[in-house]
Amino acid sequence: MLTRADKPCILVAEDDPGTAELLARHLQQADYRPVVAQDGVQALAMVERYRPQVIVSDWLMPAMDGLQLCHAAKSLHEDGFVYFIMLTIRSEPTSIMEAFDAGVDDFLAKPFHQDELLARVRVGRRMAEMHAQLADRIRTANRLNRKLAVMNQHLQELASSDELTGLMNRRQAILRLKVQCEIAARYEQPLSCAMIDLDHFKDINDHCGHLVGDSVLCELAGLISGAVRAADSVFRFGGEEFLLLFPQQEATQAAISAERCRALVASHRFIGCTLEDTVTISVGVAQHRPAMRGPNDLLLAADRFLYEAKRRGRNRTVVEGEDYLAPTTSAPVAEPTVQASP
Known about the structure:
By secondary structure, the protein is of the alpha/beta class. It has 2 domains: 134 residues, 3-Layer(aba) Sandwich (Rossmann fold), CATH 3.40.50; 171 residues, Reverse transcriptase/Diguanylate cyclase domain (Alpha-Beta Plaits, 2-Layer Sandwich). Helix content is 49%, strand content 18%. It has 10 helices and 12 strands. A 7-stranded mixed sheet has the order 7-8-6-9-10-11-12, with helices on both faces. A 5-stranded parallel sheet has the order 2-1-3-4-5, sandwiched between helices. Helix 3 links the parallel strand 3 and strand 4. Helix 2 packs parallel to helix 3 and helix 7 crosses helix 8. The longest helix is centred in the middle third of the chain and has 47 residues. The chain starts with 8 loop residues before the first strand and ends with a strand.
């Protein structure tokens, strides 16, 4: 058996005491919990307190009539829905249209019959429960959509970033390089890139372990990222290879930044590496040229200069025929100077 608190609440707004008592008695007999207000203002306060699914209201009441109560109640009710039954002696079409425009859902003519009252209340409760179920489904769908958006964002980040270093990955490098090459070609702006390779990385893994090797890659990524402009882009291109993209910079300008990265790495003591395991990088710098057919040509040019840096002994930056030679001591690195290739 339902307790009083569990019974569905029906709000009755009626200024005539006899009619209000009759309505309340019929609703109680049907196992509802009626709450009675003597006017529209009192009824509106009860709407906020009891949150009824259905309101049965007289049209003509002091202070606030039934139409005003209907409009206010529908604005206040949780989920924006309450089923409103207007109790009235009015039957002219203009009045009915006015009531529907105000948000009234149904009418009950005076004098009313008990069975008709309860039938209309049952309809109101079904409509209210259907609306509540729909609102709950919408909330659930919105919650799932928010979770899905977070998951999609996470997947997008995983697809565009390198899991170990946090840098943008090879896929993003190719996409960005393609866009920058198109901009450089269309607007005749300079564009350069640098291919970086960690020297003797296999020896680091063999002598210090793969965990140290991973740590070196992460530290290297941080050093390079902190040594370039905000407008430049740093990518982990694969394995121990990194790519730097220098928009609106000629090769000689980009080589200064690349050499700064090389010198910074050579003077840095990496965690887990012994003094004998000095970490160095080799760098090849190339500039986009009008004759190039696309981003692959620029990458191939940078890769050629990287190979040349390797061939000349590693730990150096080579740019289109010029070689930034590495220092021979561990003293602080001076401002780099350009030396012509032999």
